[in-house]
Amino acid sequence: MGQIDAIESRRGASNKSIKSIIKHFLSPQILTNQKTEKKEKKKKSRMAGVELLLPKEYGYVVLVLVLYGLVNVWMALQVGKARRKYKVMYPIMYATADDTKDYNLFNCVQRGHQNSLEMMPTFFLLTVLGGIRHPLVSASLGLFYTFTRIFYFKGYSTGVPKNRLSIGKYNFIAIFGLMICTISLGVHLLRA
């Protein structure tokens, strides 16, 4: 006697109705749907943890950081073009008069990108942390910082280093604002 027959005989119900109910609930389609539902619930519960920790607006912070990464890739491409134009081959990081007569022009392009790379860890850390408590302010400051870095780089790339400061100098306003956002987070955590 099979399991289905044993269940039917204990309950005293008609064979056809119980068999059809059991087959329905044990059908591959139902089992597949249950597995899919469990996976979706598990996935949602993992994301729910992130969504509970981070405000919805934190997405803007993430997008600004990606934008800054793209700007740095663009700067790296400009350095590559300058290497070809001024014939400064790898592994030379900064050129001398022995390498090319336009060594200052190349060095200014290289330095503009290098400075952005040097500032990236500070910018990312302050934006990521400050954005937890102040996502819109941090994202706005991050966007401002990103655009001022473009002007900083373009000004530096002219070969006249002081040109980097015409608009590029304002990037420090954004860094200072991001420091305030991050300090606010730290104070808030200590008071919680």
From TrEMBL:
It is a multi-pass membrane protein. GO terms for biological process: leukotriene metabolic process; lipid metabolic process. GO terms for molecular function: glutathione peroxidase activity; glutathione transferase activity; leukotriene-C4 synthase activity. The chain crosses the membrane at residues 58-77, 123-147, 167-190. Its EC number is 4.4.1.20. The keyword Oxidoreductase applies. It catalyses: leukotriene C4 = leukotriene A4 + glutathione; 15-deoxy-Delta(12,14)-prostaglandin J2 + glutathione = 15-deoxy-Delta(12,14)-prostaglandin J2-S-(R)-glutathione. Pathway: Lipid metabolism; leukotriene C4 biosynthesis; Lipid metabolism; arachidonate metabolism. The keyword Transmembrane applies. It is found in: Mitochondrion outer membrane. Keywords: Lipid metabolism, Lipoprotein, Lyase, Membrane, Mitochondrion, Mitochondrion outer membrane, Oxidoreductase, Palmitate, Transferase, Transmembrane, Transmembrane helix. One of its GO terms (cellular component) is nuclear envelope. SUPFAM superfamilies: MAPEG domain-like (SSF161084). Pfam families: MAPEG (PF01124). It comes from the Eukaryota. Its main location: mitochondrion. Gene3D superfamilies: Membrane associated eicosanoid/glutathione metabolism-like domain (1.20.120.550). This is Glutathione S-transferase 3, mitochondrial.
